Structure formats: C-alpha cells, structure tokens
Batch of 2 targets.
Target 1
Amino acid sequence: MQAKKIKGVRSSRMLRLILAFVLFFPAAAFPEAGNCAENPVEIETAVLEERGHNSVTAGIFLYNNPGDLAAGHLELAYDPALFNAKDVSAEELPEGVLLESNLKEAGVIKIAWVDPVGAGKKGADGLLLKITFLGEKEQPLTLHFTKVELIRADGSFLPFRVKGEESASGDLAGKIHLQIGSAEALVNGSQVTLNAAPFLKEGRTMVPVRFVGEHFGAKVSWLQETNQVRIEDNRQVILLTINTPSALVNGVEEELDCAAVIVKGTTFVPLRFISAILGADTLWDEASRSIDIIRF
C-alpha cells in the first residue's frame, strides 16, 4: 500500500478533527534513570491509495516503536469547504475504535481508540488509524496536526516529532490535578497513577518533575554520572542536582525553595519552581490539600 504525503492546510476556515484514543497496555515502571525515550515517536498523515467512487481514506501513522503509548490526544485540521463532519465515516474505522460526532458549529469529531489489537498496523514499528471522508471531491484532501499528546501508562509524555516539522515537541496546554499524599492524579480529566505521591517538605509542595515536565512538552532526562535531572524545552535548559538547593537555568544559577530529592525512584522538585519555568499557573485548595497546575 502506497501513501502520499499531505501538505499543511492553508485555509483560514478549518475545523478540528479531534482524535482521542485510549490503549490499554499493561502498566510498566518508568524509573528516573535512563528511561526517557531516546528517539521521539514520529507522526504523519497521508492519503492512502484507497479512493473509492465517492470516498477518500486518510491514514494517521505513528512510527518509531510507540509501544509505550497508553493514551493520547490528537487534533487535526481540514478545510470545511471540502469536507464537513457529516462526510466522515465510522464504517472504515478498525474494530475497537469508537466515533462520536458533534455536528454543531464547532464540527468536533471524537474518536476513542479502545482496543490496540484491532487498531491496525503499518509495519512492526508503527500504528495506523484510517478515517474515510465521503463524497466526490475534485480537490485533494489536506490535513495537518494542531495538537499532539502521547501519554505513557504512568502519565508521563512521550516525545514526538511530526514529519516535516523541526520541533520534536511543542508547548502543550492542559491541566494536572494532584493531591498531597495521593498517587492518583488527573491529566486533562483522565485519571493516571503516579509512582510516588506529592508531599510537603519544609512547607513546600513537592511534585514529580518528569510527570509535570513531560505533560507540558518538556524533555526530561536523568544524568546518572552527575546525579542530575535535565529539563529542556523550546526556550531553556535546566539542570537540577539531587539534594542541592539550586538549579542552572540556561547556565545561570537560581536558588530553590528546597532541594530536589528522589522518592521511590522518582525525582521531586518544588512546585513553585517547575510551574514557573514551564509558564504554568498553580491553584492550591487548602480544604482538599490539592493542586491544579494549568497552562493555557
């Protein structure tokens, strides 16, 4: 089966096609040391050579061993002058994939991917999801990603790269809800289980740096030789040394409220520090001892 690459949509009138999929893989441990993905998952959209008399099928490909994938959220845009929500067929979706259409003005289409066995394959190292657009259209179908989130079983984010784009991961909006002493967290309303619960130290809220950082699009790595955590996004590189109450932010030393520590194989840092460097807002609820970390 041959596939042809799609150029980005340039029309200012575009609807969002929202694909929300949940893959039930067995939970796995992701300790801090050395388990950050070396190679990002690669994502591509393409028109498959499956043009029928009155339809065209698009494929969404995830390459580069996305086996750690446990959940995700993709948004694509297409030109409503060519297709609308009523043109999208659920009949061509693989077994285990559910479709829910919202045919209001927003034109949102949600697809829940609930069965990895029936989700389709493209080679040994990739996943494929097919969507069929109905109707005879002379113009080519064009799609492009506007948002990507790929989540591991522990709630941390897999790095990704959209083919044809330079950025390996972008700034992601969203909301994390944490509670002191609880390993259960909410990521954009979906429940995930942490390796270790947030806690208070010297009056400061300590949160898992990999979990929070990767959720908002940062790359988080463990440097075994120097006992450091490296956080990198599009603007900065941060180095945190365990049990040291300071950090290097783009080479400039900054003091922390308290030092980073390791608990149950997970590195924790002060909430105020990680939220500030990632450009997120925080809300503290004293009654429930819970925290919301939000970035718009």
Note: The radius of gyration is 21 Å.
Target 2
Amino acid sequence: MPKYSEAFLKASKEHVIVNQYVSKLKAVLESEDGIRLRQAVATLEADLTDHFNLEERILFPTALLCLPSLEMADRILGLTREHGVFESDVQAILHVVRSPETDRAIPPELKTRVQDFIDRLDAHARIEMDDLFPKMDRDKRSLAVIRDLLTET
C-alpha cells in the first residue's frame, strides 16, 4: 500500500479491511469449506457496505470537488458503478452459500464466481489505492475537506 499522510491514512484505512477479505476469501476457497465461506461472505457484506458508504459520502465527492476533471468524473462514475455490481454480487453469492448443499462442499461454479468476485474487488481496490488516493493525498484542499468531513461524522 502506498504511504499516505496521516489525515488521508485515516480515511483510507478501510482498504486494509478489503485486502484482508480478499486474502480470507482465497483461503476459504482453498479449504473448500462451505460453512466458512457463508460466514466470510456474510461478514463481508456488512463491512463492504460501510466501506462503500465512506467512499461515496466522503472520498469520491471530495475528489470531484477538489480535483475536477472529466477524467476524475469518469473514474468516480466507474468506481461507484462497480460498488453497485459488487453489492449485487455479494447478494447473489449469499443466496447460493445459504443453501444446505453448500455446507458439505463449495460447488465448482460457486468457486469460480467467488474467485471472479475476489479478482475484480482486488483490481478495484488497487485502482483506488494506486491512482485515486495518491492524487487526493497530494492535494492540500482534498486533505482539508476529508479532515473536516471525518470530524463531522
């Protein structure tokens, strides 16, 4: 993870959670334990929703306000759209893992679906951490706005 200023580090710490989930889901898939997968995805659901809310309420609007450009607007639109897709994916995966058949073993098609989800989530987080967040962290106005918004919440 890139090195961020202290103010931005507080706002971006959520990505540590995302990285932990990526690792955890990979390990669960390797174990082929359906019950563990159900538990991991259920926990991920709540944490991911909170994570997306932070980004969509604080980080993304700050990027649009402080670093306005068509490129930034396109980037934020794409990331926000992906959030919706990830939320739908989690619901679809949860629907399958709640099936009693999944307790015994993870079906190959579910394993493929979860692996695809993990890969896309990881790529999404890397775009934020390697491109968007460093741009915001270098911008004094962005840091000031983030500090103010985090104080209010």
Note: The helical segments are 6-12, 14-31, 34-66, 70-97, 101-104, 108-137, 140-152.
